[in-house]
Amino acid sequence: MKKTAMLSAAAFIGINLVFPAAAAQNIRAKADVVCEPTKENLTYDCKIKLVDARTNAPLTGVTLTVGADMPSMPGVHNLRSVIAQAQGDPGNYRAILELEMTGVWALRLDITGATRDRVVKVLRFGDD
Amino acid sequence: MSAEILKVSGLATSYGKIEALKGVDLRVESGKVTCLLGPNGAGKTTLMMTIAGILQARRGSILLEGKQLVGLSPANIVTQGVALVPENRLVFPQMSVRENLLAGAYQRNDKVGIAGDIERMYTRFPRLRERSEQLAGTLSGGEQQMLAVARALMSRPRLLLMDEPSLGLAPMVVADIFRIISELNRDGTSIFLVEQNAHMALQVAHHFYLMEQGKVTFDGTPGELAEDEVIQRAYLGTSRRSDP
Amino acid sequence: MDDHVVSVLSNIGVISFVALSAYLLLLTGEISFGQQAFFGIGAYAAAIATAMWGWPLAAGLMLGALAGASSALLVGLPTLRLHGLYFAVATLAFAEMIRILLELFHYQVAVDGELVGPNGTDGFGGIRYVFQNKIGAFEYMLLIYTLLATALAGLWLLERSRLGVAFRMIGGDETLAKTSGIAITRHRMIAAALAGALAGIGGGLYAHLTTYIEPRIFDIMLGVHALAYGLIGGLGTALGPLLGVLIDIGLLGSTRLFSGYRMIVFGGLVAVLLIFRPRGLLNEEMVHRIGSFWRRVWPTDPSQKSHGKT
Ligand SMILES: Nc1ncnc2c1ncn2[C@@H]1O[C@H](COP(=O)(O)OP(=O)(O)OP(=O)(O)O)[C@@H](O)[C@H]1O
Ligand SMILES: [Cu+2]
Ligand SMILES: [Mg+2]
């Protein structure tokens, strides 16, 4: 038991050294997502608008990938991310998602490049 | 009469509203084998469990060499020198033979003494040595009963409680068990034995009790037991009662 | 490493904590359908600490573990005296109660002009610690596996300690454990608290992995899976539940081999194993056999072979 306690103390210190408290301020992203069904079953066309949460200015010059998880079964329905294409006005992106089933999905919007962030949007797919 | 190691008086134990023991009085003599007979449902197991502290007595007292056991925890009672071999030859099925023996010594912390005792058990029960790394659940019924006895002995009890050790075993194995009981007794352990097999019990026991419906209804020597007509018919007659 | 692989491995690592949590209780012979609740409590506590109070990650995870352990103790007080089916149903009821409480839980603060914090059924997003601190997905995965390895090492030590022997004794036969002088309820409380802490850490890691949590994540589905992982993978070693997670998420989930039918395949697998191998693939017998094979290959001093009693 003592050994376990010491191990966890060491782990605690280790993590604090490697992962210190927030210092660098990244840009926080905010997103609006609308997904429309396509002719293909379970395939959705998603339009995403990214802005800087602080200034509300469109977020450009970043790479956006979109994946998804099902909140009802965490960790299990892990949809492989697809790259979203910039389209139309600055900050607008589009991605085609192929889901495994209808229901509630939490979309993972992963932003890399100039800034790094993740925004999660929960949407219901299908008519039920 | 010689000194008594255990004295039970006015003991009552209930399961909810059902009173299984209704004032039991008996004594176990030091260094002797005392046997408790009785039909199914008489309360024999209940008595054993109450002595071991697993069931709580509602009334009465249990004195181990004068020390009150009622109210003590099972752990404490083991430390006082009482060990129980429960009914149905219970072992820890998912643990090896050796681990089962170590489990029996859970209340002790003299590492060297424990290792020595394991060696002693292997000498007394050679089959267990052969199977020391085997999982207890895969032993034969007889081997499991041997292990159950050895496990109980690992706590170095002064008083060994045995609840129907011959139940469901082949005659050869039953003979083995009784040989071990008399060996243990010769080595100085006092034994309180619940048994349905009165024939075998007569060969080892120094004193008998009969329990019926939660009460002691007979108390006597082997000679007196053999002469009692009612007992003869029920326990020593030709019509052997089937096991439950 | 491919992003998707990192993501799948991270999920496997995180879910392993709930599986270990359920496994620890299975060791003491208890079937809990409620470990997802402590996973959820750990997730909320750790997320609140980092995203709302500005705590460092390690402190947040510690708080998650603590919250998991203490709520497990609270739930344990009334339930741990129950047996078998009654215990299983009680844990499920408590877990659902906790989930409903989370649905009613509103506590938000403004961070950079955005409201962050638990918002009932609308969930709790913006748990951005990992992103704010420029911790890469791969690095975070390493953190998950470092902690998982620590937990496994802890369990390995535990199973060889007096306490671990007592757990197995209680799980093996309660009456017999009692006759051997083991205080059942006290040991069950310890097991429950440890299991709660494991689930709590897992929850904290999960929240920071996905950045988003909501009560629905912590419903019975997760609890059933956590339990099933140990039962499939085996109860003979802490690696058993990990094998279960690997089979489900790694094999069935990620290869899309059975895509739409994977729950059916998984359920069938559980049913078949429960009938033919009730204590899982890596059951005690298997572990024992591997152990004695090992001893034959690498003979050690026979007096060192015994365990426990240190
Ligand atoms: N857990 C329990 N709950 C309620 N009643 C019980 C319980 N265990 C035993 N009883 C009742 O208590 C009485 C005594 O049972 P006990 O097991 O002590 O009998 P026994 O003499 O050991 O019988 P056997 O020879 O069959 O082992 C019986 O009427 C039984 O039905
Ligand atoms: Cu599933
Ligand atoms: Mg009985």
Keywords:
heterotrimer, A: 128 residues, Immunoglobulin-like, 4-stranded antiparallel β-sheet, flat, C: 2 strands, 70% helix, binds copper (II) ion
**Main β-sheet of chain B: number of strands, strand sense, barrel status?**
6 strands, mixed
Structural Rg of chain B:
17 Å
Assembly of the depicted chains: heterotrimer
Anisotropy-based shape of chain A: flat
The main pleated sheet of chain A reads as: 4 strands, antiparallel
- Indicate the overall shape of chain B: globular
Binned, the helix content of chain B reads 25-40%
CATH architecture tag of chain B: 3-Layer(aba) Sandwich
Distinct small molecules bound, one entry per kind = adenosine-5'-triphosphate, copper (II) ion, magnesium ion
Hey, roughly how much beta strand do the residues of chain A contain? over 45%
Strand content of chain B: 25-35%
Taken together, the total number of domains of chain B comes to: 1
Poorly predicted sequence stretches spanning 5 or more consecutive residues of chain B: 238-244
Widest sheet, order of strands of chain A: 1-2-6-5
Description:
The complex is a heterotrimer of chains A (128), B (244) and C (310). With 128 residues, chain A is mainly β. Chain A has one domain (28-125): Sandwich (Immunoglobulin-like). Chain A has one helix at 2-18; strands spanning 29-37, 43-52, 62-69, 79-83, 85-86, 92-98, 103-113, 117-125. The longest helix of chain A is centred in the N-terminal third of the chain and has 17 residues, at 2-18. By secondary structure, chain B is α/β, with parallel strands linked by helices. With 310 residues, chain C is mainly alpha-helical. Helix content of chain C is 70%, strand content 2%. Chain C has 13 helices and 2 strands, in the order H-H-H-H-E-E-H-H-H-H-H-H-H-H-H. Chain C has helices at 3-27, 35-52, 57-79, 84-103, 129-132, 137-159, 162-172, 174-179, 184-210, 220-233, 239-255, 262-276, 284-297, and strands spanning 109-111, 114-116. Chain C has a two-stranded antiparallel ribbon. In chain C, helix 1 packs parallel to helix 6 (137-159), helix 3 runs antiparallel to helix 9 (184-210) and helix 7 packs across helix 9 (184-210). The longest helix of chain C is centred in the middle third of the chain and has 27 residues, at 184-210. Classes of the chains: A mainly beta (128), B alpha/beta (244), C mainly alpha (310). The complex binds adenosine-5'-triphosphate (ATP), copper (II) ion and magnesium ion. Magnesium ion binds at residues 44-45, 87, 163 of chain B.
